Amino acid sequence: MATQTPAPAAGLRETKKHETRQLISDHATRLFIAQGFEETTIAEIAAAARVAKKTVTNYFPRKEDLALDHQEEFAASLGRAVTARRPGESALAALRRAFADAVATQDPVAGFSGQEFARMIADSPTLTVCLRGLHDQREHHLAQVLADVTAAPSDDITVQTAAALLGSVHRVLFHRIQTLTLAGHPNDQIAHTIAAEAAQAFDLLEPALADYASA
């Protein structure tokens, strides 16, 4: 009877790859914060992590990927919340609830990145543009999900408008969290402020989207 050794070996390889990726990411973030994103080179990151430059680019094809390494999670977050909505819950209600949960846990995906990280992004034209693109991707992904759950064409004007409205509220709140972070407010205070402001923001959408895409 053959022994099943490939699975554990594969598991060890994946663990090693994950550790290497995290090591590179950690050193990159440290260098970006210390000397700026634009000023830091891939060679410096490779040297700090004690790996080859090729290893860095294998794990992170673009330099921006080293700084914003949760891009897929960010882009899918709104669509995922709508997909997981409760029975009878609208897309707006699901997103409102998910955002409240993110604020309560001070989730970095919602914008709670810490002052040093927020400053790193704000000081980098490259990262600022990249973040703007991620917001656009998130809205596009949300539109796809809304089209699926309402059985509407992806270019339907209602789908596109709803995604734009819901995406814009999250974009505004994200930047509001970043602004308060850069101003030196502690996370607990920011969370308290944003919880109240988010309620106001989402209330503005209730007349138009209260029943839209209900499960």
Top keywords for this entry?
215 residues; mainly alpha; Arc Repressor Mutant, subunit A; Tetracycline Repressor, domain 2; 2 domains; HTH_TetR
Overview of the molecule:
Keywords: DNA-binding, Transcription, Transcription regulation. It holds the Pfam family TetR_N. This protein is mainly α and 215 residues long. The chain is 74% helix and 0% strand. It has 2 domains: 62 residues, Homeodomain-like (Arc Repressor Mutant, subunit A, Orthogonal Bundle); 139 residues, Tetracycline Repressor, domain 2 (Orthogonal Bundle), CATH 1.10.357. The N terminus is likely disordered.
Strand and helix map with partners:
Layout: H1 6-35, H2 42-49, H3 53-59, H4 63-67, H5 71-83, H6 91-104, H7 115-122, H8 125-150, H9 157-182, H10 187-209
**First-to-last CA distance:** 50 Å
* Number of separate domains: 2
CATH architect. name of the largest domain: Orthogonal Bundle
The low-confidence runs, each spanning 5 or more residues with pLDDT under 50, are: 1-5
Shape: globular
Count, helices: 10
- Supply Rg: 20 Å
Beta-strand proportion: under 5%
Report the sheet with the most strands, covering strand number, pairing sense and barrel closure: none
Task: Name the CATH class of the largest domain.
Answer: Mainly Alpha
Mean pLDDT: 93
Give helix and strand order, one letter per element, not per position.
HHHHHHHHHH
CATH fold-level topology of the largest domain? Tetracycline Repressor, domain 2
Please estimate the helix content. over 70%
GO molecular function: DNA-binding transcription factor activity; transcription cis-regulatory region binding
Region (Disordered): 1-20
Domain HTH tetR-type: 18-78
DNA-binding region: 41-60
